[in-house]
């Protein structure tokens, strides 16, 4: 059995009610639910939430909310792995146990159904514990600088001051969209960022963290531009 779990707690601070705030015409979480449905990867799509309003919106857009997340997993410091493990345990106790489980973030409007399919095949084909979305940094991280307390600058890696950008190793970061994993990996609490995880590489123009109002505005610009390009 393949299970999708979309974590969506109600206590967002920097962007209140972020998970159901309207993003380009739909509640934010609706984009993740629709991508999960369109992928046809899942036997069940569950939203894990502690919030009645989020639950109602999730059901309206085609997801299930068969339980409410306990308070100890709903605070500001609740980690993704324990939240997904809780859903996997619930599924085991209330139906057919899941074999592969995909965490899809509720604030991932750029996630594509095809990427979820690719992630599933990557998980199966590589034998990894996890397969998750990544994208490349736009600038070599080896040439990053910090601003000191004296309001001056210094390089994190001064040994690379004279190294050409094209000679530096490309670096990647978590795209914050989806995390396929084997059920036993989630239950064991295995870390996602490890040699037991395989990357699903996404283009940078389809990746945007949405943590602040500025992020939100930028994401809507990017999303509308991509919609217009697709329609052209």
From TrEMBL:
<dbReference type="InterPro" id="IPR029044">
    <property type="entry name" value="Nucleotide-diphossugar_trans"/>
</dbReference>
<protein>
    <submittedName>
        <fullName>N-acylneuraminate cytidylyltransferase</fullName>
    </submittedName>
</protein>
<dbReference type="InterPro" id="IPR003329">
    <property type="entry name" value="Cytidylyl_trans"/>
</dbReference>
<dbReference type="GO" id="GO:0016779">
    <property type="term" value="F:nucleotidyltransferase activity"/>
</dbReference>
<dbReference type="Pfam" id="PF02348">
    <property type="entry name" value="CTP_transf_3"/>
</dbReference>
<keyword id="KW-0808">Transferase</keyword>
<keyword id="KW-0548">Nucleotidyltransferase</keyword>
<dbReference type="InterPro" id="IPR020039">
    <property type="entry name" value="PseF"/>
</dbReference>
<dbReference type="InterPro" id="IPR050793">
    <property type="entry name" value="CMP-NeuNAc_synthase"/>
</dbReference>
